[in-house]
Write a structure and sequence with these properties.
Mean pLDDT: 88
Helix content: 25-40%
Radius of gyration: 19 Å
Strand content: 15-25%
Order of helices and strands: EHHEEHEE
Structural class: alpha+beta
Largest sheet: 3 strands, antiparallel
Shape: elongated
Length: 86
């Protein structure tokens, strides 16, 4: 049997990802809700094991290191006229 030198992905549920991050940083602001939103938005890939969503912990840690783009809200328009704050 051949073994590859590819590391095994560290697949976790959202709750366990938060637990691992809290073990590294007890004051973290990362929440299960945020991890779930990452999966729903397709920012991090998900592997489904029945009803359980598994996420690669390394993908979440990489995202935390890289950061995410924060989009500025689009100005509201009504009939082609946009509101200007005074």
């Amino acid at each position: 049997m051949e073994t590859n030198n590819v590391p095994i992905p560290r697949m976790r549920t959202a709750a366990k990802i938060v637990a691992e991050i809290k073990a590294l940083d007890p004051d973290t602001e990362v929440t299960e809700h945020w991890v779930r939103q990452l999966t729903k938005a397709g920012i991090v890939p998900v592997v489904w094991a029945g009803r359980k969503a598994l996420v690669n912990l390394n993908d979440v840690l990489t995202l935390l290191h890289m950061g995410t783009e924060h989009k500025a809200p689009e100005p509201e328009t009504a009939g082609g006229i946009r509101r200007v704050e005074v």
